[in-house]
Amino acid sequence: MLHACQHYVDALIENDDNTERMALCGRLLAALEVLKAALKTPLPAHLIGRLTVDVAEPDNYRGPFSTDSETLREYCSALTIFLLQRQQSPEQEEQITGLLSELINLLVEDLKTPRFVHTDGGWQ
């Protein structure tokens, strides 16, 4: 779903057609809802392996935005819903779309950042 979220927001930035923008916002919102469910499930072993490092580095675990993935996802959903409401000026819409893109990229970066460390007993 992360790839889909990035794809939709990238397409949203490049698109000026109102109908297509609305469709992209709808798809993005649906992808964010699927991601919401995925964030509540335990990580499968193959993802734990990809998110595990051998040596802990203090700055290796959090992105520059100091909030959790679920909160970032909620922010992205709220901005997407706001764009779907079509109540903003074209300039505001452009700014909100840019902010949404940046938050989606932070969310992707956060979810791909290692968060486990190999230990003698496995990972922690």
Could you characterize what this model shows?
The chain is mainly α and 124 residues long. It has one domain (2-114): Up-down Bundle (Four Helix Bundle (Hemerythrin (Met), subunit A)). Helix content is 65%, strand content 6%. The chain contains five helices and three strands, in the order H-H-H-E-H-H-E-E. It has helices spanning 2-14, 18-39, 45-50, 69-85, 90-112, and strands at residues 52-53, 116-119, 122-123. The protein has a three-stranded mixed β-sheet with strand order 1-2-3. The two termini are 26 Å apart.
SSE layout and pairing:
Elements: H1 2-14, H2 18-39, H3 45-50, E1 52-53, H4 69-85, H5 90-112, E2 116-119, E3 122-123
Parallel strand pairs: 1-2
Antiparallel strand pairs: 2-3
User: Any idea how many domains?
Assistant: 1
Largest sheet, spatial ordering of strands: 1-2-3
Note the main sheet.
3 strands, mixed
Rg, Å, rounded: 17 Å
Number of helix segments? Answer: 5
Question: How many strands?
Answer: 3
The average pLDDT value, as a whole number, equals: 85
What's the order of the H and E elements? HHHEHHEE
Helix content: 55-70%
Classify the secondary structure makeup into a structural class: mainly alpha
CATH class: Mainly Alpha
* CATH topology (level 3) name: Four Helix Bundle (Hemerythrin (Met), subunit A)
The shape, in one word, is: elongated
- Give the DSSP E fraction (strand runs of 2 or more residues): 5-15%
Intertermini distance: 26 Å
| The CATH architecture | Up-down Bundle
